[in-house]
Amino acid sequence: MARKQGIALAIVAFSVYIIGGIGCFSGVALIFMMKGRDLWGWGDGRTIGYLFFCVGIALSILGVMFMRIFRNRGLS
Q: Are 9 and 3 in contact (CB under 8 A)?
């Protein structure tokens, strides 16, 4: 039972890390490619890019922290 929970937590942590990386790189792409253009009615593409970049970095850091915590606590 504990082994299955550990694997699930590891998959969740890795997923958060991957989603953060995708968000970070898509934010960089939006910053450089969408300067001054509207993005689906949400606002300037560059501004949305900064949002994706910052949230992506935060999620990547959170995913790494989760992986470290789960590994050091013996949950995975």
A: no
Measure the CA angle with vertex 39, ends 34 and 24; round to 5°: 65
DSSP 12-69: HHHHHHHHHHHHHHHHHHHHHH-TT-B-TTSSBHHHHHHHHHHHHHHHHHHHHHHHHH
Please name the residue that has the structure tokens 């501004």: 47
The tens digit of pLDDT for each residue in 35-63 reads 777 778 777 888 888 999 999 999 999 88
> Among all chains, which residue has been given the structure tokens 């942590």?
13
What is the spatial distance between Cα 73 and Cα 20, in angstroms, rounded to a whole number?
A: 23
